[in-house]
Amino acid sequence: MDIQFKPEDLAFRDQVRAFLKSKLTPAIKDAVVGGHINKELIIQWQKILYEQGWVAPNWPKKYGGTDWDITKKYIFENECAEAGAPAVVPFGLKMVGPVIYKFGNDAQKARFLPDILQSNVWWCQGYSEPGAGSDLAALQTKAVRDGDHYIVNGQKIWTTYAQLSDWIFCLVRTDPSAKKQEGISFLLIDMKTPGITVRKIESIDNQHSLNEVFFDNVKVPVENRIGEENQGWTYAKYLLTHERTAIAGVAQSKKAVQRLREIAAQEMSGGRPLAEDNDFRAKLAKIEIDLLALEYTELRAIASVAAGGAPGPESSILKIRGTEIQQALSELAVEVCGHYAHALNVDAPVGNDYAWALSAKYLYGRAATIYGGSNEVQKNIIAKAVLGL
Amino acid sequence: MNFNLSEEQNLLADSVTRFIGNDYGYDIRKKHVALPDGFDRATWATFAELGWLCVPFSEEDGGIGGGPIETMIMMEAFGKGLVVEPYVSCVVLAGSVLKRAGNPGQKAELIGGIIDGSRLLTLAYLEPQSRFDLFDVKTNAKRDGDRFILNGTKAMVLHGGAADTFVVSVRTAGNQRDASGISLLLVPADAAGVDVRAYPTLDGQRAAEVTFTNVSVPASALLGEEGKALVVLEAVADEARLALCAEAVGMMEKLYQETVEYTKTRKQFGVAIAVFQALQHRMVDMFTLHAECKSLLLRATLTSATGDAEAPRNIAALKYAIATKGQKVAHEAVQIFGGMGMTDEMSVGMYLKRINVINTLFGNGDYHLQRFMAA
């Protein structure tokens, strides 16, 4: 057993650190910490990553990715989060991109991949529907073939950033008579196509990220279908496995611990900084211990893959525990902020410049245990696949 | 970075796993528990023959130079088998004191005796009032020419009834709770004035209250420097914590696995109870708690093996996690086994009791949470 990284990995880490130090601007970093990161700043950052050739570490090199092994990918994700870089928006780079280079034809690859890499086109994900949440395969949005086109009718929901997106990748039902996983196709749809309506969802964090997307006789060229008709579920599952990587969010949670300490040093309780309060410190320590465990669980999975194997069964807990720890930290953050956590920040910050951002993060963070396969669904999967129940 | 065992470590793991699997079933363990010493001397001799008693000692002292990783490998397997032989008290505790503080003569005689199985030592470090403070020592030893005269009581001396020699923490200077002034003395169990009241503990193991009344030992019984034993005891305690937590992680693995198997065979309402989602999710939680503790065990063990400055903090985190998550897994197992979990016929209850003992030894969860926060 050896917990040290190899010299070449340490050299790579130094290279990433030097890059982040010179290229990650204070404006971007402050926006991440302050919770007011926006599309413009994210694009700015993604273009910097693109110029470095690092925007899509998971992609094969021939499509514009890297040839990094899993250890390097881990180091890169970790260093970016530690430096306070914004997370790349996953829908293009981490979701539809890999599906296109894996299952798309040459024309699709040439047409879509460069714009994803250069952040010229924003994507959103058309998976969930009002009647298809954790039971995704129950989706009802219909696509009926009409010559060179599909006519799409139906509704998607919880569509993050649909209001900012140029394209949407959708799961649609093309064979209503087949078993529910078997009649699904994977379509790429231009959001400017007539018949698409985006409606904002008022979410509990008072921010606008979630939407409903309605399709009313939307004409989609057949050439925008990925792979075979009725094979969409296979591609969707591939995408979901991509979604799972780095889902533990260890580096982000470590940042959150640091941030909590800083704020607890400023917030007073009983005439002294909350950071000195034993009950508060014990609450934070318990979460930190869980985080130490999570970090090693992730490293065990990475070491196993780096050695040419599959991640061990313990890796199945990363999503569950990662999101639970994120939530525990954000719950504690709201507690630390006291009354100002509950002031609705409309135009300018009330009281201080951090409470509102932490409060919004806490509220939006409730979704972490719901999306990507709810934690209860994850437990069903572990019960079946790992415990043989 | 890798978590693979070396070739030698694999051989050790295979040998101990095979023994526990083939020769140390729960029924055999029950027989050992019922023996006068609470363990089987013949099995102990087998441990010596298999080379397990020499693992943590340096090659110079007759061992194989094993470290925290080798101890972890053995203790995880011992945990699965609920081994009652005195590995922790003799090899880990007394052995660790000897290797850290013994002079060449003491090492040759006593480590040699531990390794060949002829000597059984244990560490008498607890007192009725000391709880988790290793420095809280009332038992005193006064110089009398070239001898020490001991008076006082040591509590819950692990395997105290079977040991031939006690390594005793005594106060040779200062007050009851002073960090300095603590020394370690070797005291034969049959010395005049030594009273041993042996008793079983709930986990099927043995302990003893040992009282010293004007017990006289030669100055050569001193282990290490006079008055400076606390640093030795603290290092030994961290080694013991790692060993005990590895044992607990082994037990947690068995607990979730045995529970899963049991639910596949136990039928209620006409079906195997394994199909109930309420139980499935609880078993997934047990699996998760084990995986977390295993990760913390690796973290604490590997950082200890490399002498990383983070090691003491990682050990505190591990001990806290075992105290909370380990006990939780055992409680869940008893719950899911239902009435059967309440019987001594099944091993789950015994795992619960052993985990509770481990959680108290060398600091409970609260103690280690504070230690983690202070680190």
Main sheet overview of chain B: 4 strands, mixed
Q: Strand-residue fraction of chain A?
A: 5-15%
Number of helices of chain B: 11
Mean pLDDT of chain A: 93
Question: Helix and strand succession of chain B?
Answer: HHHHHHEEEEEEEEHEEHHHH
Radius of gyration of chain A: 22 Å
Strands ordered across the widest β-sheet of chain B: 1-4-5-8
Give the DSSP E fraction of chain B (strand runs of 2 or more residues).
15-25%
The CATH topology of the largest domain in chain A turns out to be Butyryl-CoA Dehydrogenase, subunit A, domain 3
What is the ordering of alpha helices and beta strands of chain A?
A: HHHHHHEEEEEEEEHHEEHHHH
What's the end-to-end separation of chain A, in Å?
Answer: 32 Å
Q: Tell me the strand order in the biggest sheet of chain A.
A: 1-4-5-8
Gyration radius over CA of chain B: 21 Å
Describe the secondary structure blueprint for this structure.
The complex is a heterodimer of chains A (389) and B (375).
Chain A: H1 7-23, H2 26-34, H3 39-52, H4 70-83, H5 90-103, H6 106-117, E1 123-126, E2 142-146, E3 149-157, E4 167-173, E5 184-190, E6 196-200, E7 211-221, E8 225-226, H7 232-244, H8 250-266, E9 268-269, E10 272-273, H9 278-306, H10 318-337, H11 355-365, H12 375-385
Parallel strand pairs in A: 1-4
Antiparallel strand pairs in A: 2-3, 3-7, 4-5, 5-8, 6-7, 9-10
Chain B: H1 7-23, H2 26-34, H3 41-49, H4 68-81, H5 87-101, H6 104-115, E1 121-124, E2 140-144, E3 147-158, E4 165-171, E5 182-188, E6 194-200, E7 206-218, E8 222-223, H7 230-265, E9 267-268, E10 271-272, H8 277-305, H9 311-337, H10 348-360, H11 365-374
Parallel strand pairs in B: 1-4
Antiparallel strand pairs in B: 2-3, 3-7, 4-5, 5-8, 6-7, 9-10
Helix pairs in contact in B: 1-4, 4-7, 5-6, 5-7, 7-8, 7-9, 7-10, 8-9, 9-10, 9-11
